[in-house]
Automatic annotation (TrEMBL):
Keyword set, alphabetical order: Glycoprotein, Hydrolase, Signal
Any single GO BP term: L-arabinose metabolic process
UniProt keyword Glycoprotein, yes or no: yes
SMART domains: Alpha-L-AF_C
InterPro entries reported in the protein's UniProt record: Alpha-L-AF_C, ASD1_cat, GH, Glyco_hydro_b, Glycosyl_Hydrolase_51
Membrane-crossing residue ranges in chain numbering: none
Coiled-coil regions listed: none
Family, as annotated: Belongs to the glycosyl hydrolase 51 family.
Protein name as annotated: non-reducing end alpha-L-arabinofuranosidase
Every Alpha-L-arabinofuranosidase C-terminal domain range: 463-649
Highest classification ranks of the organism: Bacteria, Pseudomonadati, Bacteroidota, Chitinophagia, Chitinophagales
Signal peptide from the UniProt entry: 1-21
EC number of the protein: 3.2.1.55
């Protein structure tokens, strides 16, 4: 209660108004005066492989370190044996023979029976196992004689078997072969493990040991975790930005994200340490690597699945300036630029082109119709501008209509921002990517940020933003106060849709036991997932985007903080509806009269969706719907609607024009 009262006092002091007094307001909606168009890409999503977002998250692989390529080759694995025999399990490094996947495990059996010699994989903070669900196991193997059987077991935390089968490896010789088998689980387990018992005599080499649930998104083999994708699909985002922010840069250039290593056969995608493995000592993640089973092809496919534009971000020849600040010399920048040109060919090229053929061989002969990409992430300084100019010249020369998203650094103000904003506008950059991780107070106080921006020239992409409530950790950072302040700020983005044409909250996903950064939009464990209050705010804006802004005013001014009210309005040409978004960020109810000017007639009822909660309220695995939108109807009286808003609330009203 002390924390809640302190927050309440904070908000009241911030807004400098008396508590517990009710206000009456008349808001004028000029429905017949649509101004600027709202782009289909206005509200999108930002994906980064942080917080176990990919491996251990949306990429549904359950086996950790499936190809023994971690720095510690047996990390994630435990050897089970009745009797120790020297050299019975050896990690072999074939080096130059296979530089992308050099390691495999050689197992030597001495008339082994089930229970004599085996492996256990612990998964990513365990394996989520669902009763009755099919599990698909596969393995690459090589053996001189056809003699090996694998006894596969899913076990719970007490080592009880909850699903099992046998797989015979029937091929012999010097070549590698793939074997697969499916079986079903008999119980639901939050933190299961996989046992593999070897039966036979002699040696067998094993690699790419894999286990996937049968309920992946669209039932794709080796695909994505369906519940996590479903959260995204239900938002109907205009774009998906990938593969992230800081992992694009890497802590040095050897650790940068290279899209070409993420396409083609799974076994040929070269694993790399995830930079979040070592970034935060207080949230160590020594087992955090990128297998790239979720690679650029899968990102493009995901965008297509959920109806979003793809927005890849590529390294510009600069590593993270907070880490190594390493840059590639200008005379060596060409390969980085070529990577960008090749990516456009991979996404859009005819199947007769080099990279278009790679895409086609992966099962997608039709182009993905990529329209834009980002050059660099949160890079700054003259060194960034110098490199960006080379990218811009090369890409625009070949693809003049292709849009480039350009970095304005890490912060929304200060010398670095001012320098970049000025230089990028001189270059007539298509989009300037602004990031703001700030307090709720900042979001409320910056509701007029874009009102005086230039209406022509470079557009703004709010590429990463989230309201950070101080002195909290993990899930408890995703409070209603944070989401409410974001909603207030987003009304200003919508009002200035001619300036801000794209925006996305960040980060997207977080594993409850594997997170490095909070707050986050969606939290998961091995079996469950839920949307935060921030998620539902994002979803309400995305599903109620509209097509053109219409003015909404209070006392002849935009509604941007007067008596803690924040509002935007738009018209949806497809449904012929007016959409009003109204935030009451105060601790008191507000009586609001909406007057609609320039309309002949409104429907007798409107659809009202409201989110309201105490400032410290959060959603959780135990209470996933504690803070969610509630729908109702509201009466329309002629050309007027009485919309009374509760304290700390966000309302979305849709009313039909007749």
């Amino acid at each position: 209660m002390k924390q809640r009262f302190a927050l309440l006092l904070f908000v009241m002091a911030m807004l400098n108004m008396p508590a517990f007094s009710q206000q009456n307001h008349t808001l004028l909606v000029k429905a017949a005066q649509p101004t600027v168009a709202i782009q289909p890409t206005m509200w999108g999503i930002f994906f980064e492989d942080i917080n176990l977002g990919a491996d251990g998250g949306i990429y549904a692989e359950l086996v950790k370190n499936r190809s023994f390529e971690f720095f510690k080759p047996m990390m994630g694995w435990a050897v089970n044996r009745k009797k120790f025999v020297e050299g019975e399990m050896l990690v072999i490094n074939r080096g130059n023979e296979d530089t992308r996947n050099p390691r495999f495990l050689r197992v030597t059996m001495n008339n082994a029976a089930k229970g004599d010699l085996g492996l256990t994989n612990e998964g990513f903070r365990g394996m989520g196992i669902k009763k009755g669900l099919r599990y698909d196991f596969s393995i690459m193997y090589r053996q001189p004689d056809a003699h090996t059987k694998l006894h596969l077991e899913l076990i719970d935390t007490t080592k009880q078997v909850v699903g099992d089968t046998v797989l015979s490896l029937t091929e012999a010789g010097d070549s590698w072969h793939k074997a697969a088998v499916s079986f079903h689980a008999r119980e639901t387990v939050l933190k299961g493990k996989l046992n593999i018992w070897f039966e036979g005599n002699g040696t067998v080499d094993v690699d790419m040991i894999s286990l996937f649930p049968g309920d992946t998104w669209k039932n794709r083999p080796g695909g994505m975790r369906a519940d996590m994708v479903q959260w995204l699909a239900e938002m109907k985002p205009g774009f998906i930005r990938f593969p992230g922010g800081c992992i694009v840069e890497g802590f040095d250039l050897t650790n940068r994200y290279r899209w070409k290593n993420t396409v083609g056969p799974i076994e040929e995608r070269q694993l790399m340490i995830n930079r979040w493995n070592i970034e935060f000592p207080y949230r160590n993640a020594p087992d955090y690597f990128q297998t790239f089973g979720l690679g650029f092809f899968e990102y493009f496919q995901l965008a297509e699945d959920i109806g979003a534009e793809a927005l890849p971000i590529l390294n510009c020849g600069m590593a993270c300036q907070f880490n190594s600040a390493e840059v590639v010399p200008m005379q060596a920048i060409d390969p980085y630029v070529q990577d960008a040109l090749d990516l456009i060919e991979f996404a859009n090229g005819d199947v007769s082109t080099k990279w278009g053929k790679v895409r086609a061989n992966m099962g997608h002969p039709a182009p993905f119709n990529l329209k834009m990409m980002g050059v660099g992430n949160e890079n700054w300084g003259p060194q960034y501008i110098e490199r960006l100019k080379v990218f811009q010249a090369a890409i625009k020369a070949k693809y003049p209509n292709f849009k480039l998203i350009c970095s304005s650094g890490t912060d929304p103000n200060g010398d670095r921002f001012d320098y970049l904003n000025g230089e990028l506008r001189k270059l007539n950059a298509d989009f300037i990517d602004e990031h703001y991780y700030r307090s709720p107070q900042w979001f409320l106080q910056n509701a007029r940020r874009y009102d005086n921006y230039p209406r022509t020239g470079s557009k703004v992409f709010g590429g990463e933003y989230a309201s950070h409530v101080d002195k909290t950790v993990g899930i408890t950072r995703n409070t209603w106060l944070a989401a409410l302040s974001e909603a207030a700020f987003m009304t200003s983005l919508e009002r200035n849709a001619d300036v801000v044409q794209m925006a996305s909250y960040a980060p997207l996903f977080a594993h409850a036991e594997g997170w490095q950064w909070a707050p986050d939009l969606i939290w998961v464990n091995n079996l469950q997932s839920y949307g935060t209050p921030d998620y539902y705010v994002q979803k309400l804006f995305s599903l109620n985007k509209g097509s053109k802004v219409v003015p909404i005013t209070l006392n002849n001014d935009v509604v941007a903080g007067q008596d803690s009210l924040y509002a935007s309005a738009c018209i949806d040409a497809a449904t012929n509806e007016l959409i009003i978004k109204l935030v009451n960020a105060s601790d008191k109810p507000q009586n609001n009269t909406l007057l609609f000017d320039g309309v002949k007639k409104l429907a007798a009822k409107g659809k009202l969706t409201v989110m309201q909660a105490a400032l410290t309220d959060v959603n959780s695995f135990d209470s996933p719907t504690n803070v969610v939108p509630v729908e109702s109807t509201i009466a329309v009286k002629g050309k007027k609607i009485e919309l009374n808003t509760t304290p700390y609330s966000f309302s979305v009203l849709r009313v039909k024009l007749e």
